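Quick one:
INPUT:
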């Protein structure tokens, strides 16, 4: 995202209890990375790369 100058919010769930609680409550798991683009949730980056790239165009 940084390489493409795409703004994003990074939250470290290992250090931020509120972010960890939100991840578990909103998305039902604590898997990382969890990427949310326009309400669509992706767990994992490499396995979702094509779809993520499509949404970011």
């Amino acid at each position: 995202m940084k390489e493409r100058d795409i703004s994003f919010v990074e939250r470290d769930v290992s250090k931020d209890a509120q972010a960890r609680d939100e991840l578990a409550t909103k998305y039902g798991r604590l898997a990382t990375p969890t990427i949310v683009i326009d309400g669509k949730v992706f767990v994992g980056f490499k396995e979702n790369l094509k779809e993520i790239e499509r949404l970011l165009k």
